[in-house]
Amino acid sequence: MKFLHTSDWHLGRSFHRVNMLGAQAAFVDHLVEAVREHEVDAVLVAGDVYDRAVPPLPAVELYDRALHRLADLGVPTVMISGNHDSARRLGVGAGLIGRAGIHLRTDPAGCADPVVLADVHGDVAFYGLPYLEPALVKDTFAAEKVSHEAVLGAAMDRIRADLAGRAPGTRSVVLAHAFVTGGQASDSERDIAVGGVEAVPASVFDGVDYAALGHLHGCQTINERVRYSGSPLAYSFSETAHRKTMWLIDLGPAGEITAERIDTPVPRPLARLRGRLEDLLEDPAHTAYEDSWIEATLTDPARPEDPMARLAARFPHTLSLAFDPEGREEDGTASYAQRLKGRSDQEIAEDFVAHVRGGGSADEAERAVLRGAFEAVRAEDGRQEAGR
């Protein structure tokens, strides 16, 4: 049986200030075409369909169009809720939608009720294990403690028990949304540590032929049978080196796994540039990045004038600008209060000027401006106090 494994669509999410809805629609187009081209038997979506519990209307409309198009293909889709989704909202109408071949699995209590599909070699049971918040589902699964490993382990025990009662030779696939030990995180995933230690061992999925994972945004293989598809689009500059793909999995008659990565459309490449402003503007080595989304870190000893506008003249898609002056030394051991102790407002302000310049202190004219500002504030405070 052949299926596409994808996850983490995050419909409704932006990339910095760029609306990604068009790119997300292009991904849906690509997904539908890949289903046709590769003649897949099922589509798996391992959570975080939306970016937030109450998604914007255009994201809901795109989701609706995606479901209709997948249903029209006559290819079953199995979809679970992730930690970004509202499980209750995503699961509304699941029974009716299931009649069209779109199987929503958002209720943890139903994790051992699989979608059973058949090919010439027999049945394949697809178990949907939505994101499990330990504090909320501990009692549901009679888990020993409040932790991700405990509740996932208890849920998988139910799945293995159901599988053991099925016909010999029944193959099995689990969709899950979790942080599995050995996976590499990026900056764009929301932490799921609330309620207990977040990482779970891959061994929790022992006994099934394939675990289709969601949550981490980089496509990665934990082991042959446990894989993350990653997000189809980049949602942070920490994903600059990611190759965005879906997994095309061929599940053999005895549970053999053949896996192929199917590239997804890239709306615009990402680049992280670092250096002095003039070097970034003049270095011919950066020509290849002029049409990329840019995260620039400037290392000039003093903050340049109007840096964003100057960068945008060469790199019109600059989205993020940070400063890390060369040679700056900071005492990371002293607290903020300790560093300010015994210093006047004037000295603190002058230190701030030196900080943003990477060490260049205020000159006499700037010190005079600062003194005048503080004196004006004190005078105004005095007038207000006298008027009470």
From TrEMBL:
<keyword id="KW-0233">DNA recombination</keyword>
<dbReference type="Pfam" id="PF12320">
    <property type="entry name" value="SbcD_C"/>
</dbReference>
<protein>
    <recommendedName>
        <fullName>Nuclease SbcCD subunit D</fullName>
    </recommendedName>
</protein>
<comment type="similarity">
    <text>Belongs to the SbcD family.</text>
</comment>
<feature type="domain" description="Nuclease SbcCD subunit D C-terminal">
    <location>
        <begin position="267"/>
        <end position="355"/>
    </location>
</feature>
<comment type="function">
    <text>SbcCD cleaves DNA hairpin structures. These structures can inhibit DNA replication and are intermediates in certain DNA recombination reactions. The complex acts as a 3'-&gt;5' double strand exonuclease that can open hairpins. It also has a 5' single-strand endonuclease activity.</text>
</comment>
<feature type="domain" description="Calcineurin-like phosphoesterase">
    <location>
        <begin position="1"/>
        <end position="218"/>
    </location>
</feature>
<dbReference type="InterPro" id="IPR041796">
    <property type="entry name" value="Mre11_N"/>
</dbReference>
<dbReference type="InterPro" id="IPR004593">
    <property type="entry name" value="SbcD"/>
</dbReference>
<keyword id="KW-0255">Endonuclease</keyword>
<dbReference type="InterPro" id="IPR050535">
    <property type="entry name" value="DNA_Repair-Maintenance_Comp"/>
</dbReference>
<keyword id="KW-0540">Nuclease</keyword>
<dbReference type="InterPro" id="IPR029052">
    <property type="entry name" value="Metallo-depent_PP-like"/>
</dbReference>
<dbReference type="GO" id="GO:0004527">
    <property type="term" value="F:exonuclease activity"/>
</dbReference>
<dbReference type="InterPro" id="IPR004843">
    <property type="entry name" value="Calcineurin-like_PHP"/>
</dbReference>
<keyword id="KW-0235">DNA replication</keyword>
<keyword id="KW-0378">Hydrolase</keyword>
<keyword id="KW-0269">Exonuclease</keyword>
<comment type="subunit">
    <text>Heterodimer of SbcC and SbcD.</text>
</comment>
<dbReference type="Pfam" id="PF00149">
    <property type="entry name" value="Metallophos"/>
</dbReference>
<dbReference type="InterPro" id="IPR026843">
    <property type="entry name" value="SbcD_C"/>
</dbReference>
